[in-house]
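Risk register update: the risk of archive-format incompatibility is retired. Evidence:
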Amino acid sequence: MFSKYKFVILFFLPFVVKIIVFVFLSKSILFIGADIIEDLVFSCLILFLLLNISVKFGWFKLLLLGVYIFYYVLEISSLLVTESNFSASYMYALLDSNTEELYNFFSNYFNGIIIFFILLLGIIYGLLLKLNYFSPYKIPSSIKVFGVVICLFMLKLTGYTENNSYYNIIRGSYGYYQLNLMIKSTSAIDSSKVLSKFKNDVLVVVIGESIARRHMQLYGYSKATNPLLNSERNDLMIFENVISPDVLTTKVVPKLLTSLSNNSKQEQPDNLIDILNFANFDTYWISNQRPIGFHENVISKLVSSVDTVSYLTHKSHLEKTNFDRVVLPELRSVLNNKGKKVIFIHLIGAHFNYGYRYPEKFNVFNSENPIEKQIIIDQYDNAILYNDFIVYSILNEVKSLKKKSAMLFLSDHGEDVFDESNFAGHAEGKLTKSMVEIPFFLWVSQDFDLPKDFEFDPNRKFMTDHLFSGMGHLLGIEYPSINKKESIFSESFQERKRIILDRFNYDHNENW
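Archived output:
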């Protein structure tokens, strides 16, 4: 009896191995019914396909079993590294990296446990190849074909395919291709329709990295992580209810700087930088994040029309990069240039590894009970403390100009540092509110020309994929795609459903 069905028993071993990883090795509760059902249905699909081929097509058997085993290699490795399933965002990030960054990633995250499971799955693959499982089964061809069709329908119609690694590889690759295509098409600005109404001198837009609102003293956090900015809070317009549209920097930043948004239907989104250039602003991009090949990265392509671009590091975020203070001398130099200007500063902020993001002087938070989780929280809070110093220093540089100037600070996305899950980081597969809740505040000089319809409402429900309109409106620029109803700074602002990742309603999601 066993010899007759040993193929089936052996065939489902990878599925069993993943459940074991789920239950015993994961640091969080990931035993999600839909994902388990999807794995089972996908396994049955491969099994029915195998049963439909004849002995003479041995190469197809080799290929199908390879596809099957590699699926579980992806799934189990992703669980062990990120505690979530392989998602489209991971594929997106892989495509947006060069060989050096991929090497750094794998060298940092691959460990003995992952290698053990890869070898185990490799052994199972070898055993499956040796089995002759065609002859013992007297299943009618119609049943075998029907099995394939049913499995495909189950994956598609139930939506379980959302959890499938191969589906996410295709989805992530297509999304990356589409975004790059859009970025290439963002230069069709009609200069005759760009109208600049004000004569302000400087706007500095500081884009933080992985800064969680929940870990900021400025937003009520119990630790003093913002002593400097908190001393300026009376001069800041602090918005309490702003979120990011995604948890991946290369998805968020294009939505900050173009008319592309989560609900946009434009085939060719407009680039704010091009509009600023036509409005006679000198534009600058100062970044303490690596350009990743200068011309291969989505963000690098997007800012290619900036007048002056300065990348201050070429190291991966997985290494100790330059501390963010390197942006300060560059900023001072740019501020001394003549002409009205918009300066974008992209910080490394609190990007993981948190302990790499601040000098020893800012190693302030050290708990008496140094368990691993608390050490990570302390490191993250120290990174937020250092970010406080950097943003405060930028603010003082802008203030010292004594010109019509403004500074806007926001983060690309948030971070969950054991706030809502037993996890530190940001990942689509483990989405929590903390991963999209971001700080957002504005400072303006007393003589800064604000729009007549400017309105500060700290509780506005805003998502930063409409920052394009907000910045244009703040600077008094008019263009057909700049919509005051989308501007957080306008009395005409209209709230909308804040949908994250195309499926999660931030304000009305029962799963939060």
